[in-house]
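Dear colleagues,

As part of the handover before I leave the project, I'm documenting each prediction I ran so the next person doesn't have to rerun anything. This entry is a single chain, and its sequence is reproduced below.
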Amino acid sequence: MPSSLPSLDSSISSYIGDKEREREGGGMGGVTSSMAAKLAFFPPSPPSYELVREPVTGLTTINRFPHRENVEVMRLPTRRGTEIVAVYIRNPMAASTLLYSHGNAADLGQMYELFIELSIHLRVNLMGYDYSGYGQSSGKPTEQNTYSDIEAVYKCLIENYGAKEENIVLYGQSVGSGPTLNLAARLPYLRSVVLHSPILSGLRVMYPVKRTYWFDIYKNIDKIPLVNCPVLIIHGTADDVVDCSHGKQLWELCKEKYEPLWLTGGKHCDLELFPEYIKHLKKFISTVERSPSSKHIWRRSTDQFEPPRRSSDCFEASRKSTDYWEKPRPSVDKCRSIHNKSNGKEKNKFKFSFESMENSRRSVDCFERPKRNTELMEKARKSVDRLDRIWAG
């Protein structure tokens, strides 16, 4: 432990005394909101995208991407008076709908391509959204606003798209694990939850405190025991932003444990680059879809795991495949298919660039201010590096 930590508790104790008196005077909400803003929220500025309304059709689209027939972009009102932007991606093969809460320092313009790929490979409908104050959503980012944001998206799925609670998978990445678990704890019939590099709480990212303070934000450590559905946790063992111990402790507290994925060597912003990521995620979705009424078949304790498979082996290094990289190319405009021969048959495998996303999400949930988005966008435009994404079909 750093030598300064012993004085931390005394400083916090003094701080608590001051804030308890402030709370008695009615100032708690403002303090909590202020702490949340300082610790957690760094929306890209300026936003990475704009919304365009086509005059003939009246459709709303994201200016960086061509319109797709299976994608809808919309604005949704929240109970706290803000208006957020959401995108719904329909997959005709879907049996589940995934509600994705992204991490920090990102917006829909940077997440859009990943959402498309996840919808294709997982065979799910997918709805992603920008928190209040992110992208083209109105208002300011606060903890309470993110809770009302995800509620508005969930309500839209139920009322506008006919989704059922038991067919919905909540996916929260890093800071997005906060609104995800807050909602999941209140929905007893959810299909499942995925937590990607999750946090125990906002304060615990910075300091190894042993108790929950009232002024902390995103108290996931207290909410995850209330989640009644299967939970998959994915975390990189080399995460230097949110330590892997956060994911492991949350997994220990789950009621319905699913085999976790600890990606050896994985950092905070690169887990999608590991082949094990999509394989394990597909396996999880398939499992919960096959067994909607058998709540306990995927529940395993630490001593009941079958021998680890290579796709989720936490005892052997999870390597990034060198097959995913190729020489720089002049275009970074869009994804394309590549063809590889396997057993005499051709398989279409998808590739797409993570260059712009990786640059813009480099400090996702780093709790320090990222580079300005204009610099990130310029880097993405000038870069000719391509990352071949070959996810097994």
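The chain has one domain: 30-320. Confidence is low (pLDDT under 50) at residues 1-29, 293-390.

All the best with the project,
I.
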